[in-house]
Structures are given as structure tokens and as C-alpha cells.
Amino acid sequence: MSSPLSREEVAKVAKLARLRITDAELEQFTEQLGQILEHANDMTSLNLADVEPTGHPFGLINVMREDVVRPSVDRDAVLAEAPDAEGGRFGVPRIMGEAP
Amino acid sequence: MKHAIDIAAVVNAKESSAVAELATSMAAIAQKNEAIHAFLYVDTDGANAFAAAVDQRVAQGEKLPLAGVPVAIKDNLCQTGVPTTCSSKILADWRPPYTATVVERLIAAGAVPVGKTNLDEFAMGSSTETSAFGPTKNPLDLSRVPGGSSGGSAAAVAGDMTPISLGSDTGGSIRQPAALCGLVGIKPTYGLVSRYGLIAFASSLDQVGPFAKTVTDAALVLEVIAGHDPMDSTSLPEPAPSLVAHVNDGVAGKRIALVKELYEGADEEVVAAVKKAVAALESAGATIIELSIPELRLGLSAYYLIAPAEASSNLARYDGVRFGLREQGADVSEMYEATRTAGFGAEVKRRIMLGTYALSAGYFDAYYGQALKVRTQMIKAFAKAYEQADMLIGATTPTVAFEFGSKTSNPMAMYLSDVFTIPTNLAGDAAVSVPFGTGENNLPIGVQLLGPGRSEATLLAGARVLEIADGRP
Q: Looking at this predicted complex, what is its ipTM?
């Protein structure tokens, strides 16, 4: 049986998930993800058109609190654990290209 | 090692002290951890300070439910200033700026956190073999896995290094290692225990729960950590249930259903243990019926689409910006990719990719959407079963503890070790694994009791009956 997903699809998914994978990993992931999806055939083949989906066991409801100021985690303590921080902000590499 | 309830009694009575009890635990860790590798980090200074504070509170007349009880914490629960790695290189050097509610509650109850325990990377696995820092050994047989993902927390208790520990259970990650290490493990009702400070894997499934050697100790810990937490919007708006007071309630008059789909396919010795447990419950006055719930067979497939889908979203936050590892890149996109590629191990990448695929345009309805409908079917099937029975019984795992490397090359084989535990997480219900008998090489077998939401007291009373029948009065 051919794999339910192709190497091209796996490569695309890796890109979407911001992961670089080697050719050997591409081969391996394609086979393994294929096996998992094949196992899921027991489920995907069912006709459940009339069934409501459940995203959460008890249903999520919005939880509100009073709009009052209260202490939260200290900014400096958070930034101290960041790979790069400066002037009270997270530091990141360049986001935009040079102006033309 | 003394049980938690006995440690608390002698510390509260000032016949012992938290400092002395901690010394016993620390000596055991120093002697055994190198071989077992249950702990990734031992917080000697922090534990000494917590113990001293407990002794001071007791001296001032406080009575604390867990006075001076050393506790091991799974390393996906945050504790201020203590490394919290999720057994991943991507968080290897991170120290959280806040503490999980469950850890705060343990400390408030007099427990002494001694350190952080190993797990499968981001709790994705069933053996601790996906940990970036090497696996944990089963203290009962060092050539075998302790189970996972909370394998380090199970090994800490099974190896007599701490009397109790905390784990988290997304698809069986407390119950499966409890079964493989001969412990009591509880997966509480979804929302009963706060998840604030639990690093998210699959948010609609994750729950924190205890490991202990006895039903009473497990009940005691759950009582301490349960109850509403305003910091977790999925937390049930109700106080912690009374559990310890009910552990000896027995099962007289209870209707217990042996469910075919919860033992079929397990090793013969496991099936035999389940049937013996059923007989013990019947002798204790329960009415036994047999049920088939075919929907449960779809649990594994639904879980391995839902959990990776949620994980792919939850783990998007590890991008090298706010915490943990950063690998350099020419621009921010390259930095994201370099960081995630270097920081995540193979199993985490596999699940992120599977989840990304299941959520992607064109496949969403066929995979993720379909899995959510199966989840509905499963919840309805469980609800129907609970009209006929107060609790269900089956095996926790298909086999006793397996050998290292025996399932690592085939993800599907590893996933199958959670086939009996997964349905409870999908339903948001409660379940307990309790040791009952032994199998191959004298290794423990776990029997699983399952109930509807908020049935913990009933399940623990059932587990206590089995504990007594198995020779642990």
C-alpha cells in the first residue's frame, strides 16, 4: 500500500512547522507518519457526518475577572531568561530586509 | 521508605523533623540516582530551606497534611529558580520566573520538593527514552523502562528516593509508569487539578496527578493539589473533594463493569491479573457485569491526531525569542528554524509535523475534524456505560515493563502501550492504576479502574480493596 502522504507533503509540513529536515529524516518521517495515518484509517473511514465535534471535554467557557490591577510576573525576571534582551524588550535578529 | 502519611504524622507530632526526613531522602538519592537517573536536578539548597521552614511552622503549632514529606516533581512543572527543562534541549537552561499552583499547594501543605524528574521530551513518549538527557531505569529491573512519560517521577518513588511524586497524564503518562513500576497513579478528572505552571503538551487532555506506593498516600496528595485555581481558566469551579476519608469505603453494592476493549490484546498474565482483580472486587461485595464498548478501539487513532495537533500549536512558542535555546540565523525566520531544528528531538518533531499536517488545509476535516467527532462518540459511549456501572475495570498496560530499545524504532509499537489509558483522557474522566499481582520476571502488573468525572473517591475506594486483596493491608 502506498503511503498516505508523499515526501513532498512531508517537506512542506516541515517548512510550515519551521523545522529543517535532512533527506534521511524526510525518508524516515514520511514512512513513520504514513504508518500513523494508516492506523487512523479505522477512524477516517467512518461516516460521522451527523456527529458534533468535541474540542474540549467539558466545553470551554470564557472566564472573566474583575478589571483591576494586580501583580504579575516581574518583567526583569522574565527578560533575564530570554536569549537576548535589551532596554526592557526581547532582542531578535533583523526582521525586515534592507530598503531598496 | 516511610509512607507520606506516616512521615506527616511523626513530623506533626515532633517525633521527627522535616530536616531529618529530608536527609533520609537525600541520602537515598545520592546513593541511587546515578544508576536509576530518576532526577535531572536535585535542589539541595532549596529543599533544605523548605524543610527548615516546615519545622518552624510545626514548632509554631501548625498541623500540615504533608508535613516534612519529600516530593519529586516532574520536570514539566515550573518552580521558581529551579531548572525546568521538559527533558528538552530547547529549554535546557531555562529557570521559570514563577511556580506551578500544584507545587505551591504542596509547599503550603508542608511537603518538601527535592528536585525535578526525567520525562520523555515534552511528555511525548511511553518509556523516557525520548528524553534529551538519557533514559530513566526501572528501579525494579534496570534493564527495563520505567514507563513514560512521567518515568522519572515513578522511578523516584519505586526506587525509595521519595515517598510521593507528581506527574502529568495526557494519554496515560501517570498510569502507565505507575503500572510498570508497581505504584498507585491517578489521572484526575479534567479540571480537578490546576494546570497553571504545567508546560502545555495537549491542553484539552493534560492533567497533573500523583504517584505513591499506597492508595492512601495518593489520595492524600490529590486532596492537597486539587481544587479551583483562578489562574487556570479550565479549572473546575469547586473545592477539592474529600478522598482520604473515603479510601476504606469499600465496593459493597457498587456495579463494576469488566470492559473487553480494556484488556483484549494484553499479555495473558495481564488478563489473568485483571480477572483475579474482578474476583476480589466481587468477594468484597461488588456486582460485576461484562461490557463491550467498541468505540474505545478508536481512541488510539483519535488521540494520535488530537494530541499532536494541539502540541503543534502549543510548541510553536519555542522559537528562540522569549526563553530557552537560540541558534543564530541571518534573519528572524532563519533563527526560528535553526533553533527549533537544533532544540527538538525526533519524537517531538514527528508529533509537531503530524499535528501540523492534521491541521493543514485540505486535511483538517479528514483527520483533526474526524478525530474530534470520534471524541464525541467516545464520550457518549462512556456515559452510556456509566448508566450501567459505577466504575469500569481493565488493564493499565498490555505488558509488564519492557526492555530498553524494544520499541524505539517503531513509533506505532510504542504508541500501542497506551491503548488502554488513552480513552479516559479523551473523555476528560478519572482513572486510577493500582498494582495487582506480578508477571514475567516478577515485574508488577497494573489494574486500571475508570470512572466518570469526579469519581475519584469511588475509584480510590475500589483501588484500596485491590491493594488489600493483593496483600498490602
A: 0.93
